[in-house]
Design brief:
Low-confidence stretches of chain B: none
Number of strands of chain A: 9
Number of strands of chain B: 0
Number of helices of chain A: 6
Order of helices and strands of chain B: HHHHHHHHH
Distance between the termini of chain A: 27 Å
Distance between the termini of chain B: 26 Å
Radius of gyration of chain A: 17 Å
Largest sheet of chain B: none
Largest interface: B-C, 34 and 32 residues
Shape of chain B: globular
Structural class of chain B: mainly alpha
Mean pLDDT of chain A: 85
Strand content of chain A: 25-35%
Oligomer: heterotrimer
Mean pLDDT of chain B: 92
Number of helices of chain B: 9
Order of helices and strands of chain A: EEEEHEEHHHEHEHE
Helix content of chain A: 25-40%
Low-confidence stretches of chain A: 1-22
Number of domains of chain B: 1
Shape of chain A: globular
Chains: A alpha/beta (219), B mainly alpha (213), C mainly alpha (219)
Structural class of chain A: alpha/beta
Largest sheet of chain A: 6 strands, mixed
Strand content of chain B: under 5%
């Protein structure tokens, strides 16, 4: 399934194809559209993401990146066209604008909650390892509500990676991270790059471009 | 099946822990119900029957439940925490069940305070009233939790929950008041059981449709 | 549609003729004639709510594209006929017993509860942006309404035994053949009217939707 002819439709997007990995397709979209009430956020979108691929989504604010990522993660349903995501729910990891952590629970309690829900094997070890790798081990017993924005973002990423997902959908994962945090994320992404499929949106494409196999640019 | 129960347990424990730490909903419900009972004292003119007061007890219960239900999905809505739960592989209805259990716990605690307060302010409470309260709680919480999720989606949020809830609460009030005042409460208690069974089933089954975007 | 309109007019005229000239005058006098309106209107209202509930169930189950709109229009008709039920019932009570409202008429009280419930349905619908989520919420609530009908009926019946003993009942005595015939014609007329209004409103709403789509395509 190497890149065949790719069309650009409507106002929403163009797709450019890098090197496909040749493996089967994990995400396929045909004429994908999403509207909220009267507002058409996405229209006529076509793209494919290969298993093990890395799709980079760029574009200005309000262009529909977040909506697209939510659709890929299964948090929203298309109102037009088709979106085929061949990854079951428990293999998808998502990090968006909200950290999705409970403020009154500690970092470790939050991860324990999600660890139980995702039935992560060797839960405690894995939580410990992730907190360590994202530099949160010292703060593990603090309430997530007391975390700074950067720490919350790191915790959110821990949560997204906790169950070792096959598909990672990350909506501006670098936002809120300081340099140290950004480097930690770089390292993680590079580590997992071969094992998982990625859909990542970012304002800072240069950072992630080397990893990308496909790019979707919103107008 | 065991996984389902495990998911429900995890989520319910989460909700109870959150309330234990934040301590905003339960104290509000307690204060609300006692204040309401005091208001009712002034709302009943002299020579009002005992039975009228019993009826008002049920009003207090329904509205106290509303206070608790209004808060039920606040965090999930405001910080989009519902997304975290929807991403997880658990059944959507488990979210409903866990949340219902938590709200039921809060309502129960509020009633543990309210019923003795009522007995002190007004008149004694028989076993049939207590049985009715227990049964009614199940129905109120089952329907209320689902409607709280519906209200969380709407633009008017807390405003719409009472409108959606009160017509559905009327049969519960009828069952509860009937059981409290009538000599042989069996029919009313039986009716409450029917209400609970029917509405718990359809709430459980339809929660999934309420939370998908 | 014209055939339907003709049928409706025909049935309505026939029923009016029958009610005023054919059916025997009861002990109640002229007031009893209201029954031939009140009960069929009530039954038609139930039918509308039932139809709305059916369409709601279909929407949740199979998602045919028009089901949500059909459910909404049916419930709209149900509320209109429900309001008429309350009005005709109230008139009848006023003439018969001198009060505008009587709690012992179980039918009427049931309608009041349903009226409140379905008004909340509309408030819900107007407070959510149009889209698949609004359709789902409306459908779920409509189904709750259908379940509420028998449960409320039982409850109200139970309530009357502790509120006050049933003295006044609005359902008439067993009907003689001529009365039955008149009743059936009146009922058919009301159903026909409801169905006509339903189709009429549906057509209007579909036209609106088409117009909107055209506008968007041109924009």
């Amino acid at each position: 399934m190497q890149g065949h002819g790719v069309e650009s439709h409507g106002q929403s997007g163009q797709v450019s194809r890098g090197q496909g990995t040749g493996a089967s397709v994990l995400i396929a979209a045909r004429g994908l559209g999403k509207r909220y009430g009267d507002k058409r956020v996405l229209e006529g979108l076509d793209f494919e993401v290969d298993r093990g691929g890395f799709m980079l989504v760029t574009g200005p604010n309000g262009s529909g990146k977040t909506t697209l990522l939510r659709l890929c993660a299964g948090l929203a349903i298309p109102t037009a066209g088709e979106l085929d995501v061949r990854a079951p729910r428990e293999t998808i990891g998502f990090a968006g604008h909200e950290p999705l952590v409970y403020r009154e629970l500690t970092a470790i309690e939050n991860l324990d909650l999600y660890g139980r829900l995702y039935r992560v094997p060797e839960r405690r070890e894995r939580i410990g390892m992730l907190l360590e790798r994202f530099g949160l081990w010292q703060a593990r017993n603090q309430r997530a509500g007391s975390f700074s924005r950067g720490m919350q973002q790191r915790l959110s990423l821990c949560r997204a990676l906790l169950h070792d997902p096959d598909l990672l959908v990350l909506d501006e994962p670098y936002s809120g991270l300081d340099d140290a945090g950004a480097e930690l994320l770089d390292r993680e992404l590079a580590d997992i790059r071969g094992r998982a499929t990625f859909v990542v949106s970012t304002h800072d494409p240069d950072r992630v471009l080397p990893l990308a196999s496909t790019r979707l640019a919103f107008a | 099946m065991r996984r389902y129960a495990a998911d429900v347990a995890v989520l319910a424990r989460k909700d109870l822990t959150l309330e234990l730490r934040a301590r905003d909903t339960l104290p509000a419900m307690l204060l609300f119900v006692v204040s309401t009972l005091v208001v009712f004292h002034f709302a009943l003119p002299r020579h009002s029957s005992d039975l009228a007061a019993k009826g008002l007890l049920w009003v207090a219960i329904v509205f106290t439940a509303l206070v608790g239900l209004t808060r039920a999905f606040v965090a999930e809505r405001e910080q989009r925490l519902i997304d975290g739960l929807l991403l997880a592989p658990c059944d959507r209805s488990a979210i409903w069940l866990a949340k219902s259990i938590a709200v039921l716990a809060f309502l129960g605690v509020a009633e543990i305070v309210a019923l003795p307060a009522y007995a002190v302010f007004f008149s004694g409470i028989g076993w049939s009233t207590i049985a009715a309260v227990c049964l009614a709680d199940l129905g109120i919480v089952a329907v209320g939790t689902l409607l709280a999720a519906v209200a969380a989606v709407s633009r008017t949020r807390e405003l719409i929950l009472p409108l959606l809830f009160l017509p559905l609460a009327i049969p519960v009030v009828i069952g509860g008041v009937g059981a409290s005042v009538v000599g042989s409460p069996a029919r009313y208690l039986g009716f409450l059981c029917l209400y609970d069974a029917v509405f718990a089933i359809i709430s459980w089954a339809s929660f999934e449709y309420v939370v998908t975007e | 549609m014209t055939a339907l309109a003709v049928l409706t007019t025909g049935l309505l005229t026939a029923s009016i003729v029958l009610i005023f000239f054919y059916a025997p005058v009861d002990a109640d006098g002229l007031n009893q004639k209201i029954f031939y309106f009140h009960v069929p209107i009530a039954l038609t209202s139930y039918a509308c709510f039932g139809w709305g509930g059916l369409k709601a169930f279909l929407h949740l189950w199979k998602r045919p594209p028009g089901a949500d709109l059909e459910s909404y229009v049916a419930i709209h008709q149900g509320v209109i006929f429900g309001a008429l039920t309350l009005v005709t019932g109230s008139i009848w009570a006023k003439v018969r017993w001198g009060t505008w409202w009587t709690w012992s008429d179980e039918q009427l009280v049931l309608f009041l509860v349903l009226f409140l419930f379905y008004c909340a349905y509309f408030m819900l619908r107007y407070s959510v942006d149009p889209g698949p989520q609004r359709a789902n919420l409306s459908a779920v609530y409509a189904l709750f309404g259908v379940v509420l009908i028998p449960i409320s009926f039982m409850a109200i019946r139970l309530a009357n035994s502790y509120i006050h003993p049933t003295v006044f009942k609005s359902s008439g005595p067993d009907m003689a053949t001529s009365q039955l015939a008149t009743f059936c014609v009146a009922w058919a007329a009301m159903l026909s009217l409801a169905y006509f209004l339903y189709r009429f409103e549906l057509a209007g709403k579909k036209l609106d939707a088409n117009l909107k789509e055209l506008r968007e395509l041109l924009a």
